[in-house]
User: Fold these one by one.
Assistant:
Number 1:
Amino acid sequence: MLQRKVRVRFAPSPTGALHIGGVRTALYNYLFARQHGGDMLLRIEDTDSTRFVPGAEEYIIEALQWLGIEIDEGIGAWNKKQGAKNTDKGLCSEYGENGPYRQSERRDIYHKYVKQLLDSGKAYIAFDTPEQLEQKRQEIKNFQYDATTRMSMLNSLTLSKEEVEKRIADGEKYVVRFKIEPNEDVTVHDLIRGDVTINSSILDDKVLYKSADDLPTYHLANIVDDHLMQVSHVIRGEEWLPSAPLHVLLYRAFGWEDTMPEFAHLPLLLKPDGNGKLSKRDGDRLGFPVFPLEFHDPKTGTVSMGYREQGYFPEAVINFLALLGWHAGGDKELYSIDELIQEFSLDRVSKSGAKFDFEKAKWFNHQYLQQKSDTELAELFMPELQKHGISAFPQDTLEHICGLMKERVNFVSELWEQTSFFFVAPTEFDEKSLKKRWKEESPRQMQEMYELLEQQDDFSAANLDKVVMQWIAEKEYGVGLVMNAFRICLVGAARGPHIWEITDVIGKEETLRRMQYAMKTIA
RNA sequence: GGUGCUAUCGUCUAGCGGUUAGGACAAAAGAUUCUCAAUCUUUAAACCGGGGUUCGAUUCCCCGUAGCACUACCA
């Protein structure tokens, strides 16, 4: 095997939002490329004109950008160009010497290779209409367009040369099919699974090109492009494994077997419950995102949630995804993207599908949230605060609050419900808490405590703790009873951090005001 | 139906012939405490079945079973 530069590609179809499984494929490609000092290409496989979704391309680029998966060549790599500006085609400008990188813009290239196959007798032209094929499938069970049936179909193998030319001249639609020689064992070497062998007889004569839209199918375009773009490793989902032998046959037909890329088929991402591939519906059904970014489907008008909008940090998503199907071997679970680039290896990718564990995704986000500084968190929290009408608030206090409360949340978005009482006095009191913690003697005790606190010039946590505990001891009150009632006055419910942390933040005046309000309001 | 891939706690996984089968998430219990969390400690929890190979199989091989994928003029 000759050593050559590592070049990998991520090649999505612009048929909608980028699925989280696709994100993982992109990630593994990226990690592999970076680790080997290679190139990461992005190619758009838009050979199915009927499934094109406007905006999908932009979505893909934006998602990868958010996650920090950088493209070196192809669509979305405009920033690699010296002095490049993201202007002409927006995010989707391309850069590189092997373009165009959109398959729909490579028609001329495919024509050439289709002709080559036709001329060498490795492919043939077929006129059978979809309807006719459908009928065959009805008539003959397990009908397959292959060596056993092709001589009874409408194609350049059974029709005269003149007839074929006439039909084409008349504008009849046709396809070009790959002529697969039967009964040959084809072996694909997979970096993750080892050798996979199938017999060519089970393959059908795949359509390589359709004249209806003048576009190749995936199989042809894929092989031609990977070859021309000098792709060294094809890392893709397991759903492609069954067609990998076909691809090998295609490389052979072109005489490119020497430079054929190596293959690695990744295990699938499965539904959290039950079995089967993870789908968009599962996310909707179980309430978690399957897309990196929120997606507005222009065709259906539906909006699907995204990890970014749900408050996930990109590094948490990357970390979580990396470990879904790959493991370094030790007990380490928290990896930065740089560490992943260091440690990743294809031979440690597992072979079996991984069920999607949404709870663990949250845990990862929690871990990354803990790593953020209080200053960073305060900054991230600002927009949320402003939404609730809090605009001017002392920065150091805000940071202090974030530091106090961050360990109990998974997302920045949960911060408000955990901390709102620092900013806004309670107007209502949680009934459950009242029932459990507000007793007959509470109003009287609160009144006494109010008077006690009113006298304190030193409102520090240390001093308050001292005098209040002393007072409780003298009166032989229950600590729990007093403190819980006090907490209800300040927070409105039986939750929150240590009580003196709260008084410390809101101060004497506000503490007394809240007590007064509570005593007046709670019947 | 055909072909292929896969198979360790509920989940993600470690293990690459000899281990008390390890870790993490989730779960349970306890500690802590003025509350709720968090945290810490602890517990429970797995080698799909059957044959081989071997002194010895979770590990290697075969068969079965199950799951998944593919089987389009979609990718």
Number 2:
Amino acid sequence: MARPREFDEDEVLERALGLFWSRGYDATSVQDLVDATGLSRASLYGAFGDKDALFRKVLDRYVERASPLGALDRSLPAPEALRALVRAWVDGACDARGPRGCFLLLTATSSNDATSAQQILAASVADTERKLAAYLRERRAAGELPEGRDPKDLARLLVVTQHGVASMARAGVDRALLRAASKEALAHVLGDA
Amino acid sequence: MARPREFDEDEVLERALGLFWSRGYDATSVQDLVDATGLSRASLYGAFGDKDALFRKVLDRYVERASPLGALDRSLPAPEALRALVRAWVDGACDARGPRGCFLLLTATSSNDATSAQQILAASVADTERKLAAYLRERRAAGELPEGRDPKDLARLLVVTQHGVASMARAGVDRALLRAASKEALAHVLGDA
DNA sequence: GTGGTTCTTGACCGATCGTTCTGGAACGTT
DNA sequence: AACGTTCCAGAACGATCGGTCAAGAACCAC
């Protein structure tokens, strides 16, 4: 019925994510997006609406894909699974391909669209905390983890560690420091003396 | 010899800090600064140079004043001193007066002036880590803290906790979560089972 | 091929950005 | 009182911002 699009929407969103993630919302101009995606301004606006709408779409896409507990292998014994998880946090935050840190956290701490992103982050944090606490209780009941401390508080420690790692990684802090710190948080969860 | 200034430089910098901290560099326009400080544009430029120079001056001022270990009371027994320290981290980051979080961390994770702020942050982090590790060793030798784990790694855990708290506080995360998490990190340092 | 619809292109809009300039007011010195 | 200097107020600068418009090109259905 009409002329088909000459671009792949997913690819455009991916490029836009790269820009927004590395430079932030304000510092990314529409011209930058035009240059990076190859689309013209009118095509961008026609396909995604204004800059805010595009950003929201990009953020939704990121949130949908990112899973804080994705690296938690439930087939492994708890200590190894958790070890792999926190390692994945550090490596993911320090990954040289793509910008460092967490795009959602960056958005929620910057000014633009803050309240919206903050709500998403709050929900994500609450969800991660709840799932982690449930996991700890479950594995504790299975005898894989020591008793004693409140699983909820331990989950909270891990979540704060995760975000500290993401934030500091974006700030350029050395990976070795983040690795050591997260290992130490994990040691507490595992009850290592 | 000439007409004296009608404004207090410290007060102007303080107001500028408030704006930059709450909105970030990009989202703070010169007009905003003019409105908030009461100065005219020409006076601002005459006194501080351009926007970048003003921002740098504001950042330097903040860094100079902020002391991550300022709340560490060395006259107290180590457990109480550390407890007060991490509590001060949380309360400081969540303080309703003024913007939440850490201005230096915000700057280092945003795009603008990133490399410069990142270097300052890296130096601050390294310094805090070193001093904390030394403190832990010292108090460990005095019998106030348990042996076993590497003081350097424990210091790193605390530093990452501190920044996780600051970052999440800025993102609007509930204070109770941050408090619980930092308490847990502290428990690890204190060797609480 | 023709009509209808959508896409693409590039020029263009007003608004706002950071910055500078000009004119005049306010002060210390002589 | 008169000078020289510095400060203040506001207009104005070019550049860039996000966003739109008009015209032509590309496609599908018929």
